[in-house]
Amino acid sequence: MNDIGAIILAAGMSKRMGQPKQFLNLHGKPLFRHAVETAVHSGLRPVGRSGRRTDRVT
Q1: What InterPro entries does this protein map onto (predicted)?
Q2: Which of 6, 17, 50, 52 is deepest in the core (most CB within 10 A)?
Q3: pTM of this prediction?
């Protein structure tokens, strides 16, 4: 049983990028989703998310 979890922080205005970084597309998926999937595939449970509009990432 793995007792280690992950909290992925996704916040900030990202003015230079023109849109929130967590929603930037990388290989067809938002960056935030890549971070969540990496945590899950590493065996980290549960994965928590924190940030502005992270509910948009499925």
Answers
A1: MobA-like_NTP_Trfase (IPR025877), Nucleotide-diphossugar_trans (IPR029044)
A2: 6
A3: 0.67
pLDDT of residue 28: 94
Collapsed DSSP state (helix, strand, coil) of residue 32: helix
Cβ contact 54:10 at 8 Å: yes
Residue type, 35: A
Where in the sequence is the domain holding 52, given as residue range(s)?
6-56
Partners of residue 30 on adjacent β-strands: 25
User: Would you say residue 1 lies in a domain?
Assistant: no
Give the N- to C-terminal CA distance of the chain in Å, as an integer: 26
Q: How far apart are CA 32 and CA 40, in angstroms?
A: 13
Q: Which residues in the chain come in under a pLDDT of 70?
A: 1-2, 46-58
